[in-house]
Structures are given as C-alpha cells and as structure tokens.
Design goal:
7 helices; 6 strands; 14% strand; binds farnesyl diphosphate
Amino acid sequence: MAFFKRKKPAYTDISQIELPSHIGIIMDGNGRWAKKRGLPRSAGHTAGAQTFRKIARYCSDIGVRHLTVYAFSTENWRRPETEVSAIMKLFKEYLEEAIRDFKDDSIVLKFIGDRSAFSPELLALMEENEEESKDREGMVLNIAMNYGGRAELVRAMQSIARDAKDEKLDIEKIDEGLISDYLYTKGQPDPDLIIRPSGEHRTSNFLLWQSAYSEYVIMDVLWPDFREEHLNQALIEYANRNRRFGGV
Ligand code: FPP
C-alpha cells in the first residue's frame, strides 16, 4: 500500500544539506553512563562536559549559527548536594577555561536562565565571558543554566505586565513577536532542530515557547558517548524531514 511506503532519505551526507540555523541539545544520560561503569554520577557529568566542549566546537566549525545546550534546569537543584556541587564545579572550570584560553575564539557566549541562584564567583565568570565575547562574529552558544521554559514564560509575563502598567507598552500590541522579545533568546531564531540523546521522549521544560515548530531528533546514545557522527546523523535526519509549520 502506497500509504505506508516510506520515502527513501534524500540526503546521506552533511555536505549536501542546509544546516539548521539554531540547534538545541538536551545533554541527557550522564548519570546512566556513570552507573553503567560503576562510577559516581559526577563522573558522568565530567565526561558530559568533555562531550559538550567537543560538540560545541564542532557545531561552530561546520557553520551552525546558534547552539543552545541545556546544562542545568530549574528542577535540577533537587539532586543530591554532592551532585549539584560537582556540576557547579564543572561550570566554573569551563568558564575559567573560556576566559583563559579562548581569547581568539569566534564563539559568542550567552547564559540563559535565572542567575540569582548562582554564587557571586560563578556570576562574575558568566558576566566576564559574555562581555569578553559579545563582539565576536561566530556561533552564538547559549548555555542554559538554572533554566526552565515555564519560569522563562513567567518572567516574560511579569515584565510585559510591568511595562503595560508603566504605560511603556500598549496591550493591543502584544503579539507572538513581542513575547519572543521578552525571552532570554531575544533576537535569535527559534531552534530548527532539538537533539535529545539517551532515548527519552520528553521536552523537560526546554525552550517551550521557542520549540513550537522545532524538529525533535531522539537518539539512543548517552550524552558522554555522543560524537560528531551522532550530530551528523541528527542533521541528516532533520534534513530529510518535511517541515510544514502547520501548513500542507
Ligand atoms: C542530564 O543527565 C545532565 C545534567 C543535568 C547536567 C549536564 C551537565 C553537563 C553536561 C556538564 C557541564 C556543562 C557545561 C556547560 C560545562 P542526567 O544526569 O539526568 O542523566 P541520567 O538521566 O542518565 O541520570
């Protein structure tokens, strides 16, 4: 029956495809990766941080314009204190390394999420990295830290209500574009592709508004085992999809 026939993928190599301008990645599976090896969960995060470095660099090298990685959610504080502090230590190491070693880099670093929960030291490193990289012209790397899509929308609604009350905003002018402008990702395109390794089929509160028309690619690999080839595979799957944005 023709109805069930799957079209043969048209693309097999990333050199043939138009890259998504914005990729989101939910870096999932660090804990399971560690457990499989009889290691503490923190070892999974250390390995995951190495994968993050490699994949961010690769995305920048192949010409992706925006990459958003989900590094720590508003819900992740519920984890044991030892695990949370191990993750905070990894953030600090990466941000220090970025300041120290990435002087000639083209990547623009941005942090999305509620910063109020971070230590003054981490906060200063975040600000320094943003300031240092803001005039670069390469890929924008958004690191979502203490980020939640619902919290982001609550924050946006509060700001919109405040501006309306202060008569800086006409309520009749509230539309989808205006709401996007009140989000952390203001001025950036919505993600075309969101990759979730580790096989889970959930959005986990990631870029809720922005992902309305994103293509999700779920992959069975755990994040620490994710390699450039997996990214290529996701890109090819994305390119072979038929995006309709609600049309036909
Ligand atoms: C989810 O896997 C991963 C996290 C909550 C932490 C992500 C952090 C990193 C990749 C390292 C630091 C990042 C930077 C930017 C330096 P999980 O722990 O939920 O895995 P599980 O589902 O197998 O338990």
